[in-house]
Amino acid sequence: MHRFARSLVWFRRDLRDFDHAALHAALRDSKAVYCAFAFDREILDRLPDRADRRVEFIHGCVTELDAALRGHGGALLVRHALARDAIPRLAAELDVEAVFANHDYEPAAIARDSAVARDLAAQGRTFLTCKDQVVFERDEILTQAGHKPSRDWLGLVKSSRSRNKIKHWLNVHQRERAIEIGRKLIEKEARKYRIALKEIKDEELQKVASGYGLGKADDLMSGIGYGKYSARQVLARLLPAGATHSIAGDIESEGLTSQPGGIASVVRRVFGDHNAITVRGQGDMMVYRARCCNPIRGESIVGYITRGKGVAVHSIHCPNVTNLMYEPERRIDVEWARDESTPTAYPVKLTVFCDDRFGMLKSITGVIGDAKSNIKNITAHTSNSQASVEVVLDIADLKHLEQIIVGLRKIPGVHEVQRLQKI
What we know:
The structure is a single chain. By secondary structure, the protein is α/β, with parallel strands linked by helices. It has four domains: 4-130, 3-Layer(aba) Sandwich (Rossmann fold), CATH 3.40.50; 160-253, no CATH class; 277-336, no CATH class; 346-420, ACT domain (Alpha-Beta Plaits), CATH 3.30.70. The protein has helices spanning 21-29, 41-44, 53-71, 83-94, 107-122, 160-192, 202-211, 217-225, 231-238, 245-253, 320-324, 360-370, 398-409, and strands spanning 4-11, 30-40, 76-81, 98-102, 126-130, 277-279, 287-289, 301-305, 311-315, 331-332, 334-336, 346-355, 375-383, 386-395, 414-420. The chain is flat, with a radius of gyration of 34 Å.
């Protein structure tokens, strides 16, 4: 069943009878299809030379298209006039119900198409345009079932409208996920002490949330899910004093406080027991160095509250920080612990670009050894008398790293030394 009895396909720069979206749509939806092209005087009259090579090229393409259409039993109707007038007039002459064309994106073409659409609408005819010459339209995002926006999209979109839509979706759905994780964490903690969380009334949850300066119980669950509040601390405040003796003992043994805003004396760490990073004004928060940038003591750092994993600490120069910080409320202040009495070693990966010569590897390891740094791994690759040496070594702090890099750059034959953020 055809949608239209007769229609017209308006060819513009798309002078072909194959892989043509508008032609395909017209043939699919119409019983009879006419084809037309207009040498637009609005363009031609502005040309300084009527023998312009571009006009010759278009004329050749029009001739080829007409021959191709005649091979299918049709023909190409050609007009030399203002296209905005010629197309509505031709549509009326042929008494078509619809005009099909492919999208055009130039400002003048958009204005021309708008005028044609108005004139056709006044005649009671439909003007339909199709996506044909681009992979994506402006602000178009193709989705598949089960696929959802990612924060990686924020680095790709250009318009503020698209960016705000993605941010809104991420905020809503990540909050929902954080609430779900928060409930699971506190339920898991309650089971350790054989406490049925279902017996706790909503009014009590609301009271505890207010104690943390929050408006709703869901805000409290979200905070637990993001790692901002300890499930054990919240549980201790939810239950009667007599029922929390064992919980309080566990909190005290860990050096934590059940009061919101208390500063913990112990912060969970990764990459060794002495990689101390503290969170200002928060207690019992797991803190870990992000593997995308592996910050070391002395670098400026920023914390990002993750879902159920605590605080990820990034270097302020980490390329991921821009995308992560689209939610300002999840940013948290962190700092390197002031206690530096115990030596700390951070693994750092360096790449040395140098000449492939005798004794080069010995010189590199000598500089590292003189700086009292331990080499954990080293590999070398050579090609065309050049070499790249990758070395993973233990670094105490930023000054220590800078000292080694300066020393390596002084070696004759070394062209560049770069630090790789990921190990």
